[in-house]
Amino acid sequence: MAPQPPKPSAGAILIKPYKVQESPFYTHVAQSTGPVNIVTTAGQIGRNPDGSVPSDPVEQIRQALTNLRRCLDAAGARIQDVMKLTYFIVGFDHTNPRHRQPLLEFLGDHRPGSTLVPVPALALPEIIFEVEATAAVPQYPPESVDVVIVGAGLSGLQTAVDLYKAGLTVKVLEARDRVGGKTYSVPAQGSVCDVGAAWINDTNQSKMFALAKRFGLDLIEQNTKGSIVVDDGVGKLKTHPYGQLLSTAEDKEAIDDVVRIRDLFEETCQQIDISNPVASGRKARKDLDNITFEDWVRSHGPYKEDALNALTIGARAMLGVEPAEMSALYFLDYCKSGGGYMQMRSDLKGGGQYLRIAQGTQSLSRGLAGEIPPNAVAFMSPVRQIEQRAGGLRVVSARGVYEASRVVVSVPTPLYREIAFDPPLPPEKLRLSQATLLGDYCKSIVFYRSPWWREHGLCGLAQSCHGPFAVTRDSSVDEDGHYSLTCFVVGQPAREWMQLSRKGRDQAVLDQIQKLYGPFAKVEDPVDIVEQIWQNEQWSQGCPCPVMGRGGLTEFADVLRAPAGPIHFVGTETAYEWKGYMEGAVRSGERGAQEVLLAMNRAKL
Amino acid sequence: MAPQPPKPSAGAILIKPYKVQESPFYTHVAQSTGPVNIVTTAGQIGRNPDGSVPSDPVEQIRQALTNLRRCLDAAGARIQDVMKLTYFIVGFDHTNPRHRQPLLEFLGDHRPGSTLVPVPALALPEIIFEVEATAAVPQYPPESVDVVIVGAGLSGLQTAVDLYKAGLTVKVLEARDRVGGKTYSVPAQGSVCDVGAAWINDTNQSKMFALAKRFGLDLIEQNTKGSIVVDDGVGKLKTHPYGQLLSTAEDKEAIDDVVRIRDLFEETCQQIDISNPVASGRKARKDLDNITFEDWVRSHGPYKEDALNALTIGARAMLGVEPAEMSALYFLDYCKSGGGYMQMRSDLKGGGQYLRIAQGTQSLSRGLAGEIPPNAVAFMSPVRQIEQRAGGLRVVSARGVYEASRVVVSVPTPLYREIAFDPPLPPEKLRLSQATLLGDYCKSIVFYRSPWWREHGLCGLAQSCHGPFAVTRDSSVDEDGHYSLTCFVVGQPAREWMQLSRKGRDQAVLDQIQKLYGPFAKVEDPVDIVEQIWQNEQWSQGCPCPVMGRGGLTEFADVLRAPAGPIHFVGTETAYEWKGYMEGAVRSGERGAQEVLLAMNRAKL
Fold first, then answer.
1. Minimal Cα distance from A70: which residue of B?
2. Mean pLDDT across the stretch A323-347?
3. Which of A124, A577, B4, B140 could anchor a disulfide with B400, C-beta 3.0 to 4.6 Å?
């Protein structure tokens, strides 16, 4: 593979002074090195995002450090950039320094300076620990390029590659310390597992298939051999061979309901014109945009609960939201962008979940990054300001300032608000950013010694309208001896599950696997669990695709892709085809590059 | 008007991290941006400059924040540059966070990070609040110019304009965020009021009259129609038509005393040679320099108290000092610089207080600033070091470092000590800086719905040897519907008045207006009061002109204007004519420019 972008160097040099007694927990002196931005934080306390405070003191300390980590992330600072920490501790007992273990986990190998201050109280009576940090974030030299791209996910990288190949100079500013965005392949059990986007196909996802071939990646056909397990919440658990109707309903009427609503949805979906969804078909479809997907289902009822439940599982598994949270037209258009509801949900050839990548989908992003110069990507560089000036654009990131003629923003629409645009974005673009909702989308990937489900005639697909997970899929890489079930914890059940401790979350998933698979197979003990909560990721804030509520497409269908002067917008949600998928991301990246080249009269380069 | 110099950008970007609960009182993360100087402060406590501590806890907190504001000012840091605050609070009660209101007033719209640390005690038993700050002050790129001018008051700007017109490159480093120094026009009641220098004339202040014409400003004749009110402290209140002898004395002897000492003073004054005051007249006047003005008056006595009181009011109103605090020769020379005591004190044509400027006197400074390039003035840039090196001078300001062949210092003599000169200034120059005293000079400008004093045949001039104010003058701008009395709180009474709260100060002024005017007119309720305490201004430290005590002129008459190598000195106190007035400032600025041009052999440019 081509050389990858270099990781940023540390901003703080730690120094051991002569004849001052050393500590295993901190270093006495820190020195910033080179040009740096100084980052300071407010004192962080152990409050959860909802304002609650864990009752267990150690959990409270852990939460304060989690908040400090979020503060540092927000400023593009890594642990290695921290120069100094100050702890304020109520009721400190030097014989039981209970902050120490969470702190060592937080610090890793880094040992910045620290001061521990026992105090009689903190700002609120329930708070027993507060921590603040000073960090030094190294600054790259100022640079002037043709185009700055904000975000090194698939869409941003595709834009960068196309522009670079057309002869322009590019700089990709990535907030994380890796490329890939929601393509994120994590090493586990001698293999990798995809905690984000995982599937492509070779039929109607031409971009993805071409990239996989270009980068020499190995494709794995999704396992659909055998039966699936279904729990739609109203009857008993059942198994069906893959491809049969998914329902536990016993009576014919209920099964008819499921079929009828599914077929009606598919039929309506096929009428949508993805180039202009609001005006689809013989009449404008504002009616479909003015009701939620749930109300649309109910309006064609009455239906038995299991018909509703089946579509609820679909909405959750596909977008991480509840049927009441998106407009019917939005969901119809979303499904149509992948060829229709049936095709998008399918694990068979041509379906949305047909092929996996043995090396992980992040290899696609790494492959694209390898096609631009290594120093064209700057990591840990969240963009905080984009200013239009007489001479061009000035982009202020956490690690440097860049001048450019054009900027391509590839972050999800709700994250536009994290950037101070000067002049501000057009009001409709800001409303778009505020109006779109990112799904609650988590994966809990459970590793086993063997694919025990296959031995019992099961393919690893399970569906449940009970939480925490809605769906499982076989995510094994047999060649690596990697056997896993990926559990999709999505929508409303995810919101409750995320409140649990890590241990509680793992147990809840294992319990549900036992409950669903136990009646049909002997469930092995797991060897590892990898989890990913996309909603906790500062630079994603959810997954897979920002969703629009009632009236959203009517208001924003044209706003979504409209440039704001010299600032362009890409990202999978802006795609016409395969929204929310890697294919959509790459297609939007190509569109963004075309826009820039046209605007710069460089189309023919 | 020509484009004005740009305001500096903020040094701190405030960042809201994802999933950390927001607060209305602070922001979790701050990041310095671009090249900055980092500013840290000691913990600030609520001590007054005299060491006393307010007994009211909230006043103590307010004073601590005032001290912090002074710390930031000293380093050229604005509130917007503050990244982090830390509060230490004794007896903190989270149900009654009494620091909050003063803090919000201090912060304005800015919300830096903060940590609140309840503590059992602070360094002194009476202290209940301490606050420290970290700020990031953006740095301009290094620059090399022919001449750096320190201070953008009238004298510095006049020097800059003359040098710029002679073809030199200039940089004016101004500690404040505005031009004008002691010309400061504050918007109020739909008009402006001059809280600093306010009067010019068109007879013997040729420079000021020319500038006013050049900048198209509207002149207002000072109102002297009607009577003045006099309270010289020994008799009853009286009114006299403007221009008559000012005294409440009843007996002829006392009135004769007043006339005699006034005439003697004027006669002596007229003998002074302003180009060489110490050698004035037939014999050297060291004798006049070796006694204070008070002793000089007494030495020609005995007088009744009201004769002394009349001259005390004069000293206070003209220089903000007591008659015992300056040498007789200094005051004589000061008066002579404006044509004599009678002319300097006069509000009639040719007098020191004949014409006001409807747009405010700061318009004169803005006009001058508009005649040099906008980026030739750098705001919030107090100069801290001036180093002479082989290649020239290096001037270190809070926001940048500049190289120059010459430097012109336009700050008041007592402020030379704020700058570290390397090599140090000549010892006599340092002694000058230490020996000169800035007056206690305050204005309390009281706005009314109508000029009620005029309806009762009064011109708005009042004199009083009781505090708080010594003099009032009509400062209305009738065209704007702006009616006000400017009350001069000066000298010893000002020192006591400044100790009061703002509310107390306002009330004391209103009480005195009632006391003086009440017997002769129906005093309206005020609609607004604007006050200015020049002694509290870090970059003025008093007003209008540094005063010399006994022996001062003998020692410093030649030192005052002498350059120190390539460093030149201007400012109204260095003028020959109209010292302490705007006219003097501008004339000194012209003299400074001529010195530089001569020294650089550019006189003919």
1. B17
2. 95
3. B140
Question: Looking at the predicted complex, does its ipTM rise above 0.95?
Answer: no
Q: Please identify every stretch of chain B with a pLDDT value under 70, giving residue numbers as ranges.
A: 1-2, 234-235, 245-251, 280-283, 602-605
Q: Does B484 touch chain A (CB under 8 A)?
A: no
Structure tokens given for B154: 């009238």
pLDDT band at A283 (very low <50, low <70, confident <90, very high): low
- Asked whether the beta carbons of B73 and B384 are under 8 A apart, the reply is no
Least confident of A116-120, A548-552, B9-13, B445-449: B9-13
Report CA-CA distances (Å) from B433 to B101, B154, B430, B444.
Answer: 40, 20, 5, 29
B560/B569 Cα distance (integer angstroms): 8
CA distance A358 to chain B (A): 33
**Measured between alpha carbons, how far is A28 from A45 in angstroms, rounded to an integer?**
24
For B317, phi then psi, to 5°, come to -65, -30
CB contact under 8 A, A67 and B20: yes
- What is the rounded distance in angstroms from the CA atom of residue B231 to the CA atom of residue B313? 10
pTM for the model? 0.87
Closest-CA distance, A133 to chain B, in angstroms, reads 10
| Of the partner residues A37, A398, A536, the one whose CB lies closest to the CB of residue B19 | A536
Residues A538, B26: C-beta atoms closer than 8 Å: no
Measured CA to CA, the distance from residue B440 to residue A99 in angstroms comes to: 55
The total of other beta-carbon atoms located within 10 Å of residue B158's CB is: 28
**Contact at CB, A43 and B120, closer than 8 angstroms:** no
Q: What is the pLDDT of residue A605?
A: 47
Among B29, B117, B136, the residue with its CB nearest the CB of A71 is B29
Helix (H, G, I), strand (E, B) or coil at B530: strand
Using CB atoms within 10 A of its CB, is residue A110 exposed (0-12), middle (13-18) or buried (19+)? middle
Task: Identify the sign of the CA torsion A491, A494, A498, A502.
Answer: negative
Which residues in chain A are contacts of B13 at CB distance < 8 A?
Answer: 384-385, 396
pLDDT value, residue B253: 78
Q: Using CA coordinates, name the residue in chain A closest to B39.
A: A38
Q: For A180, which DSSP code?
A: B
> Are the C-beta atoms of A380 and A76 separated by less than 8 Å?
yes
Which of A41, A50, A70 is nearest residue B113 as measured by Cβ atoms?
A41
Which residues from B are below 8 Å from A134, CB to CB?
134
3-state secondary structure labels for all residues of A315-378: HHHHHCCCHHHCEHHHHHHHHHHCCCHHHHHCCCCCCCCCEEECCCCHHHHHHHHCCCCHHHEE
**Nearest Cα residue to A246 out of A579, A522, A489, A470:** A470
Q: Is A52 on the interface with B (CB under 8 A)?
A: no
